[in-house]
Design a protein that fits this description.
Blueprint (H helix, E strand, L loop, with lengths): L2 H38 L5 H15 L1 H11 L2 H16 L8
Helix pairs in contact: 1-2, 1-3, 1-4, 2-3
Length: 98
């Protein structure tokens, strides 16, 4: 076994691990920001809709508030989708390919 073969396997393993870590981090941060924004009324656009978001979270439930937040701020669901793609790309799945 040559050293370049070992090195290429190491690089591909590290690259896959980095993709999984970055994807997981994007998912966790996006969901965390959305949850904090919905539950506390602070976050993106807090001055504009802080009272309305809190009232909606109390009246209609957390799921409806998260859906409304996702509709108002579409970058967060997009970041979650990108994170899911990165996690899937880091795994050896037949969905992405080799």
């Amino acid at each position: 076994m040559s050293s370049s073969d070992r090195l290429s396997r190491l690089v591909s393993a590290v690259s896959a691990h980095v993709l999984r870590v970055v994807g997981s981090l994007m998912i966790v941060l996006s969901v965390g920001i959305a949850a904090v924004s919905v539950s506390t009324g602070s976050g993106p656009g807090a001055g504009e809709t802080s009272g309305g978001t809190t009232a909606i979270a109390a009246d209609a439930g957390a799921v409806a508030a998260l859906v409304e937040f996702a509709a108002a701020h579409p970058a967060y669901p997009a970041a979650v989708l990108v994170g899911l793609v990165l996690v899937a790309a880091g795994e050896e799945t037949p969905l992405i390919g080799s």
